Amino acid sequence: GMNNVHVEQILPSTNEYLLDKIPNLTNGQTCITECQTAGRGRRGRQWVSPFASHLYFSMYWRLEAGIEKASGLSLLVGIAVVNALEKLGIQAVGLKWPNDLYYQGKKLAGILIELNAQASEVCHCVIGIGINIRMPAHQADAIDQPWTDLNTINAQPIDRNHLSGLLITELQTLLADYEEKGLSPFLARWFELDCFLNQDVNLIMADKIQKGICRGINEQGALLLEVDQQVTPYIGGEISLRLA
Ligand code: BTN
């Protein structure tokens, strides 16, 4: 079998590495690499993954309740990453629905959860997390949105091993809680961390853009958008949020 934490020098993608090993994985098995040659971002984008610069991390988890439970998962993972960073002394990191981490309006980390599930069966999840630690100058232009890294926002250099350990503990604790109790116990924490709460936003969907006021999330992890004084939940997937 595989060690609980599998560390590589170079891989196409830590998500792909774990996805290839389903169903022979156990909860919490983790893969970390120094460099990805085909790092994946959401919506088919690439994730810039230079050597020894950032954290490229994936963890396997199976949801016994099946795929219905997967919609709130990315929100929970975002909370786990913020908690781990706080334990390192890094404050004021916020969340952007459904699962980006922001610091002062700039992206610090991203989450890509890939699922392997048949209807009404156990849902195999690979939880991929990329955290910017120290962006090399020559990579900075390759990124199409405002970004920051931990080296910029924290006076002390970041120990990636320490961060990885905290992340594993935090994820295992929160995922077990989530399986038992769902998202409800985490709603208050989400509202505390939500960067866009009560702000004018554009919700970008496959076929249109909806303007509204962000009113947080519900127990399914859906975005609550207020339009003409009426609040409507929008489930995740191919939609994302921008400040209006
Ligand atoms: C996003 O688009 O914001 C999600 C980025 C997720 C990147 C991480 S890095 C580790 C894991 N392996 C991948 O190929 N992608 C995720």
Number of strands: 12
Strand count, sense and closure of the main sheet?
A: 7 strands, mixed
- CATH homologous superfamily title of the largest domain: Bira Bifunctional Protein, Domain 2
**Count of structural domains:** 2
CATH topology of the largest domain: BirA Bifunctional Protein, domain 2
User: What letter string, H or E per element, gives the SSE order?
Assistant: EHEEHEEEEHHHEEEEE
Name the beta content range.
25-35%
Low confidence ranges: none
Average of per-residue pLDDT values? 92
Q: How much helix is in the residues?
A: 10-25%
CATH C-level label of the largest domain:
Alpha Beta
CATH architecture of the largest domain: 2-Layer Sandwich
Rg over C-alpha atoms, rounded to the nearest angstrom: 17 Å
Number of helices: 5
Rough outline: globular
Q: Which structural class is indicated by helix and strand composition?
A: alpha+beta
Give the distance, in angstroms, between the N- and C-terminal Cα atoms: 49 Å
Strand order of the largest sheet: 1-2-3-7-6-5-4
Overview of this protein structure:
The chain is α+β, with helices and mostly antiparallel strands. It has 2 domains: 5-192, Bira Bifunctional Protein, Domain 2 (BirA Bifunctional Protein, domain 2); 197-243, SH3 type barrels (Roll), CATH 2.30.30. 22% of the residues lie in helices and 30% in strands. The protein is built from 5 helices and 12 strands. The chain has helices at residues 14-19, 73-87, 150-153, 160-181, 187-193; strands spanning 5-8, 30-33, 55-63, 94-96, 100-103, 106-117, 123-131, 200-204, 209-217, 223-227, 230-234, 240-243. Strands 1-2-3-7-6-5-4 form a 7-stranded mixed beta sheet. Strands 11-10-9-8-12 form a 5-stranded antiparallel beta sheet. Strand 9 and strand 10 form a beta hairpin. Helix 2 crosses helix 4. The radius of gyration is 17 Å and the shape is globular. Biotin binds at residues 13-15, 36, 39-42, 45, 47, 56-58, 100, 110-112, 128-130.
